[in-house]
Amino acid sequence: MQLILRNFITILKRFKTASILNVLGLSTAFAAFLILLMQVRYEQSFDKFHSKAERIYRLEAQDEEAGRTLYACILSRPQIEEFAASSPHIAAGALTEDQDEVYLTVKQGDHPTGMREQMVLCTPELAQIFDFAMLEGDTTALRTPDQVLIPQSMARRMFGHRPAYGAQITYGSERLTVGGVYRDFPRNTQIHNALYRNMGKRFANQRGMWAFKGYILLDRAANKQQVVDNYMKNYVAPHPDQRQKDYRLTLLSDVYYTNDSEDMTPQTHGDKAQTRLLLIVAFLVIAIAAINFINFTTALAPMRIKSINTQKVLGCSTGILRAGLIFEAVGLSLIAYLVALVIVHVLSLTSYADLISADMALTANLPLAAYVAAGALLAGLIAGLYPAWYITSFPPALVLKGSFGLSPKGKRLRTVLISIQFIVSIVLIISLLFVKIQTRYMQTTPLGFDKDNIAITEISPDIYRNHREALTDRLESFPGITHVSYANKKLCNSDDYGVQGIMDQGINIHFGIMAVSHNFLTTMSIPIIDGRNFTDVDARKQDAATLICNQKMVLGNPQLIPGKRLADGFVADIVGTSADMHFTSLRKPVDPFALMLVSTKSSQVLNFCYVKIKAGTDLKAAVGHINQSIHAIDPAYPVNVEFFDNVLNALYQGEIKLNRQITLFSLLAILISMIGVFGLVIFDTQYRRKEIGIRKVFGATVGEILTMFNRTYLYIVAVCFVIAVPVAWYEIKLWLQNFAYQPPIRIWVFAVALLVVLAVTILTVTLQSYKAATENPAQSIKTD
């Protein structure tokens, strides 16, 4: 063992460049591999941490006219409660209604402090289904309407490190008491770290009010289909005229990847294609690094063969020599792994931690780090086995008389290995460019309204109800602000909006809906193509709602023309038709959608203020004026002003994050590949020194020698490009299927990928071979 260890240290000192490059390539690969696996594990383990995860389901219903076979997870309260009571195999059923962020005030010191926090209304049974790890109080607080449960993180924001149990929170005109504090749920769950409150009798008998999610806990997972079939037979079949014709239970841990569910509230959702792509990239990076490892070790074989042969002559067995070579490989691999841990730890303390959704801290990923450590050990063994047998398998005669390093078999092996690296690099570059193009296309495609210089800020219900006109006057007093309007939602904030169902001429019509003030279309520059815009007269009307439908809605229902009154349940006057606009992301096609004018007499709150700022205005000054205007009314209110660029960035956060991930790891793959090329050039220049010297004696120039070295690699790159293009195109086509709107295929993407790899390869080969090409031929011939 001492001999093996001594040889290992000697090798590190003798071949410093090779050792450093090996450790650099491997450590970079291990760090990238570990970070990517953190993200993959985060996505694949969504909602699996709940102790009853295998028995928790979400209730979903199919619409009778959902042509795309989509299932809605937002249902009416009577539907969910009826289903929950339909079978003895249902252990518990609970409802939730997301309230998004609400304005709360708490007393901090002598002054009230305002903050926006997420609220979820629920039934008490939620605590029977999900694991609330209570730190203060208990879950019985959910049985009382004026008591709430809050997560530990919210308790810290509100009350610091003081006990939160029994503390008071003001919500509008209500006083709520903290009845319990629970430990925050992990990030990868559908259940929010929010303020939970009993929903009371809210919409208890209104089957037409779709606002709730239903969670069902079964006694045994095997009874799922029996429960659904029983409900369909005894509750749905006897009522063939009802809207929903089919129900299903979706396992909670499957919700994240469900792609046929029409979520109508902001919902965490993943894409299996993206997860698969990240996993492929992770293993490709490791494969490239392992190939480098093998290439380096075999490339160093000619420089070590005489030493190995000498040890044989002196009596050292082949087994010990092979064990030593394998130990060297494993040792380098483990050193690289330790360096990788340092890299990951440092990155976790910087803004690069936001590169992935998962927690990058090593303490949160110890099992994963242990698996990667085992992988590093295995990688060292695998990468060391072949070179160990390869170096010790040559007879002394070949060592003394021949150049086995330049044999056809040796060249072929190295060519295959470096070709794999080139193929992977080209595939990653092509994928990267297509992801960038698609992301850029989604961010810059016209949305059907003017998003430039539109500032959005949320306001409290009190400000809207009691100070709306004063706020509008204050805002419009600024010279650069031209329009101020209000809405109950933020455009392009989600792929899901509330759905309204109406009956007209015996036909069910369902459409997305957004409540707005009378000048909203003017503020957003949404064109009217038929009929008219909202007016002040419409805003004062109380006997009926006022609608403007988009083209998609009218196209599917030609009777919905301006001047028509809907009077079957939902009373509304249609006054106009607007051009289609993208109110969700470009992942989805434009759906039927209507803007509904809210009467000035209505109790409904339009809590988003849209401010149109004139082009050329000092935006910083305008934002400052918006802040001052709101604080003049409510000094404690936490104002947050954002522009549509930020809204779109949040909407496409998944694509932007994927873009950054692929960019980084593509660069790492190229770097590791070029380290491999660098190693091979070292090998070639070392063992063709005599050939180079002879060529120079016969008149070869430095440029001709550099061309000779580059020609081989350029040919390899060209062949790899032909192989890589269809592979990359197949993977990208699968990913693009997630988007309803895509830019045309850009042929230049493939050319750019080829040019990048060619340029980096030529630069690497030229820099490394230049020394050999400029060496004195007398010296190279003499020392070969």
From TrEMBL:
<feature type="transmembrane region" description="Helical">
    <location>
        <begin position="747"/>
        <end position="767"/>
    </location>
</feature>
<dbReference type="Pfam" id="PF12704">
    <property type="entry name" value="MacB_PCD"/>
</dbReference>
<dbReference type="GO" id="GO:0005886">
    <property type="term" value="C:plasma membrane"/>
</dbReference>
<dbReference type="InterPro" id="IPR025857">
    <property type="entry name" value="MacB_PCD"/>
</dbReference>
<feature type="transmembrane region" description="Helical">
    <location>
        <begin position="277"/>
        <end position="302"/>
    </location>
</feature>
<keyword id="KW-1133">Transmembrane helix</keyword>
<feature type="transmembrane region" description="Helical">
    <location>
        <begin position="662"/>
        <end position="683"/>
    </location>
</feature>
<feature type="transmembrane region" description="Helical">
    <location>
        <begin position="713"/>
        <end position="732"/>
    </location>
</feature>
<feature type="domain" description="ABC3 transporter permease C-terminal">
    <location>
        <begin position="664"/>
        <end position="777"/>
    </location>
</feature>
<feature type="transmembrane region" description="Helical">
    <location>
        <begin position="368"/>
        <end position="392"/>
    </location>
</feature>
<feature type="domain" description="ABC3 transporter permease C-terminal">
    <location>
        <begin position="280"/>
        <end position="396"/>
    </location>
</feature>
<dbReference type="InterPro" id="IPR003838">
    <property type="entry name" value="ABC3_permease_C"/>
</dbReference>
<feature type="transmembrane region" description="Helical">
    <location>
        <begin position="413"/>
        <end position="435"/>
    </location>
</feature>
<feature type="transmembrane region" description="Helical">
    <location>
        <begin position="323"/>
        <end position="348"/>
    </location>
</feature>
<keyword id="KW-0472">Membrane</keyword>
<feature type="transmembrane region" description="Helical">
    <location>
        <begin position="20"/>
        <end position="42"/>
    </location>
</feature>
<feature type="domain" description="MacB-like periplasmic core">
    <location>
        <begin position="19"/>
        <end position="189"/>
    </location>
</feature>
<keyword id="KW-0812">Transmembrane</keyword>
<dbReference type="Pfam" id="PF02687">
    <property type="entry name" value="FtsX"/>
</dbReference>
<dbReference type="InterPro" id="IPR050250">
    <property type="entry name" value="Macrolide_Exporter_MacB"/>
</dbReference>
<dbReference type="GO" id="GO:0022857">
    <property type="term" value="F:transmembrane transporter activity"/>
</dbReference>
<protein>
    <recommendedName>
        <fullName>ABC3 transporter permease protein domain-containing protein</fullName>
    </recommendedName>
</protein>
<keyword id="KW-1003">Cell membrane</keyword>
